[in-house]
Amino acid sequence: MSTVAVTDATFDAEVKNSDVPVVVDFWAEWCGPCKQIGPALEELAAEYGGKIKIAKVDVDSNPNAAAAMGVRGIPALFLFKDGQVVSNRAGAAPKAALQSWIDEAL
């Protein structure tokens, strides 16, 4: 499974109403740290298979979702479980740190 592009219009359906936990990555094309963690998130999406969903929200194209979550800087990662935020973190991190954060939150 790969990451899922989520928009303002699909945020509730893809994230809040998901039947599996969702990691949401708020990012932008021009953001260097966002590009750094992109490949790690793709790998994690494949490794976790159907156990979690990794969603990516482009803040330039979808400002409403980012504003609703209070995103002030990117990359910003939020982990949703049963429609609620259970954990969040900001900034780039190595794949192992991201995986550890996800595992702890689940």
From TrEMBL:
Belongs to the thioredoxin family. This is Thioredoxin. The active site is at C31 (nucleophile), C34 (nucleophile). CDD domains: TRX_family (cd02947). The gene is trxA. Coiled coil: none annotated. The lineage of its organism: Bacteria, Pseudomonadati, Pseudomonadota, Alphaproteobacteria, Rhodobacterales. The record marks D25 as: Deprotonates C-terminal active site Cys. Residues 1-106 form the Thioredoxin domain.
